[in-house]
Every structure is written in C-alpha cells, then in structure tokens.
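Data availability (excerpt). The following record was deposited with the supplementary files.
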Amino acid sequence: MTTSEPDLRDPYTAPHFATSALITIDVQRDFLSEAPYGVPGTTEILPALRRAASAFRAAGRPVVHVVRLYEDGGGNADLVRRRLLESGVRIAAPGTAGSEPADGILPEAAPALDSALLLSGRPQRLGPHDYAVFKPRWGAFHRTCLEELLHELGVGTLVFAGCNLPNCPRASIVQASERDFRVALVRDAVSRVTDSALTELAGIGVHLLNADALEGRLAEPSQGAG
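Predicted structure:
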C-alpha cells in the first residue's frame, strides 16, 4: 500500500464489488513478453490475472476484455505506431493468432475474436460473463461502446488489469475516473508497474489491491462497499 492510498471508507471512491467489473487491457498474444514486439513483464502477470478473472466469474460479475486490432498498414492505429505498421510489421492484426487473448484468461469454449464485429464498434459476447470490446487508441472509452455496455450491465466500479500501466491502463483509468466510476487496480496483474505510478493513481482515488485480496473481497457474501 502506498502512503497516499485512498481511504477504503470514502463514500465516493471506495469500490463496490457487488456492482464491479474486471477490465483487462490488451492482454493479447502479440503483447506478451516473449513476442517480437511484446511488452516486458506481461507474460509474468498472467497467473494473477487469470485468478482475478476466475474470481469475477465465480462471483457472477462481468469481465470485459478490451483489445487492439491493428489493420494492415496501421491506418487505425495511434500515430506513434503508424510508421512501424506501415513498414509491414503485423501486430494484433485482425484474424491472426497474435490478436487473440492470452491463454487462460478467457472462459472455456470461448469463441475466437470476431474482428469484423469488434471493428464495427460492437461488443462480442465470449461467455456467460465475458465480453470483448475493441479500442482504437490508448483509452478504453475513446470511440468505443464500453461505457454503454457497462451501464447496461449495471456496473459502477471498474477493476483494471493488463498491459501495460504507463500506456493503455493508465489512460483508461483516467477516463473511467472522469466518468465517475469507482476505480481499482490489481497491481500484480498489470505490467510495467512502478511505485511512482501507483502513488499518482492513488492520488486520483484509485484503490490498489493484489489478486489475493481481490479474490477475498469478491468471495464475501455481501460483496459490499470498500
């Protein structure tokens, strides 16, 4: 815990696990540590992330997998990535194995990603509690259906995990806070974590917990506030 971590009794920011959803960010094969253009430390967080996803499903709560799909040539990518993609490099390309979520984070018998559906801006159902949403930029709410989906599911607290904290998780967390969601981060289920980044997030009301603590909170009969 950082010294500036928010008060779990705060009526405005304390997580309400009974109305929570897990948001995984960019946990796709092409972004794993061992991939040619992967993010160091991402494969290593998979055990904690799998436990977090399983705990949400066991509690009957939603799990939303926010993914990237870079079209050939990079025309739908962030500007900083376009030069690389224009050179012919294919990362998380629609329909490729590398675009699929990492092994073990989806429920059994989940279908492959439906690239056409996701690129059209609609969510894909992946299981009784799991969904996929495509995002075209760093933040999970920018030009996506995520906010609408969360409201339809009655979600008020977002618990984030995934790849990699300085970029997409951080941008998505700020966007969630701007939309008055209660926000938490599973610090051992997100890659490229630093103490300074955690302190900064705590300063905007983000609650920090590890996968073990999350499992305990979701298993509580009331799944209540903070």
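Summary of structural features: The longest helix spans residues 46-58.
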